[in-house]
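HUMAN: Forgive my ignorance: could you write out one protein's sequence and backbone structure tokens?

ASSISTANT:
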Amino acid sequence: MSDTRHTKLLIIGSGPAGYTAGIYGSRAMLEPILVQGIEPGGQLTTTTEVENWPGDTEVQGPDLMLRMEAHTKAMGTEVIGDIITDLDLSKRPFTAIGDSGTTYTADAVILATGARAKWLGLDTEEKFKGFGVSACATCDGFFYKGQEIVVIGGGNTAVEEALFLTNFASKVTLIHRRDELRAEKILIDRLEKNDKIEPLWFHELVEVTGTDMPLGVEGIKVKHTKTGAVTEIACKGVFVAIGHAPANELVIDQLETHMGGYIVTKPDSTATSIPGVFAAGDLTDHLYRQAVTSAGMGCMAALEAERFLAEQE
């Protein structure tokens, strides 16, 4: 027989947005339940050094998330290692089904399931993730001061990453499988005027090469999309910039979305198209995608949930 748990506030997701929502929800005496999901700690658990978290000159991503989890528990949030597989937002109380068999009912829900970087799916890409292969220039660009690096992609994300990385790298090679960028004109103009960026058209990444001890990138192999010729390029960093996908599987058919699946929230709010349901962090943020902005939105969501629940009473 499956267990049923009721809570005033259910938080789904355990990155900076989810944990911060837990801290503020607990302070509001809402006794929230937080279900961690498939990747406790979120994207930061796959990052090594984090140098842009206020108060820490440098911190390891996994360590930061363990500290957040401990803080959330200390404030009184019940943190549960379960995965929500189904969520019904059609009526209140809202109902969520866990992979464990537990049913969670809640008067308000904060969605903080995050987003996932899109990857190419190469074995060597996976091997060097966090050791020279990244999907976040603002997270990791600083570590490539004076180095030659490559960016994979041809849309806004790729051009923005390439431009940002010129602040650190000696050279940025932008590799695109076509000869035309799918980015905004203003971004393309900036890219063309930047002498640190060298586009390589009609090529696709086929392999990342490097050392095993210690693990690190030394170069890549790219294939010409028309001739099939393979070229080796020396580099220290590979930034895969083919976009992000919000983890919206639970609510894609229930909440209003835009920009490729990101949850729509009201202006200056985390409120979604369903009263009592709030979205925070990368699930709704297609623009910044930073730990600190996600945490800020988690705070907002908890405060708004508290206000919503008070109005219901």
